[in-house]
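Lab notebook page, bench 4
Experiment: in silico fold of construct C2
Operator: M.H.
Input chain length: 212 residues
Purpose: comparison with the prior construct
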Amino acid sequence: MPKTVRNEKQLKKRAIIKAGVEAFSKFGFHKSTMRQIAEMANMAVGTIYLYFKSKDEILNEIFDNEIEQHLDRLFDKIKELPPVEALKIYYSSRFMVIRRNLKLVQLLTREAQNNKKLGNILYKKVFEKVMDTLRDYLNYRIEKGDYKKFNVEIVTILLFSVSTHIVIWKELMFEALFKELSYEAFAETIADLFSNGLLKTVPANINMEGMK
């Protein structure tokens, strides 16, 4: 295939994905149609069917582009950094991605509560992927000796869930209350708190083995 043709196909595919994000954000996933996506991409409906068989495939591609590639690059970048710096970069990056797709995240999360099919896609492509990667990272740090042993499953859920909640609270629910709190400050505090804990020193009467 000539390079110019390949480039043209890639441009059209990216345009369809972008239009999919716009349509899902505006109408919601359930109410969006391939015709609406085609109109937003300035293409004929038949053209987008050459690239995607359904809006489900477009949604999967959106998640693949935004989540999987981002995560692979992110964890390759941070896994050899000092633990506090690594988590700071992780949260700064997660905040950025969620903010960039906030309306879409909000709509899909709400719709998924009543749409089992969408819920499964959202879980497989976002929740499961992010948590699997985060779980692998935590286990890697434990094996390396950077972290003590703890309940990896619970910590994975905690670290995963806090980023989305902070962005939603800061951007949508409690803007005035969170106005003076920057994402950088959140990232630094979470990284420090998780890595170093709240206590200045661990009291001698605390059995750390029992907390694992």
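Observations: The CA atoms of residues 17 and 58 lie 6 Å apart. The domain at 1-53 is CATH 1.10.10.60 (Arc Repressor Mutant, subunit A).
Next step: discuss at group meeting.
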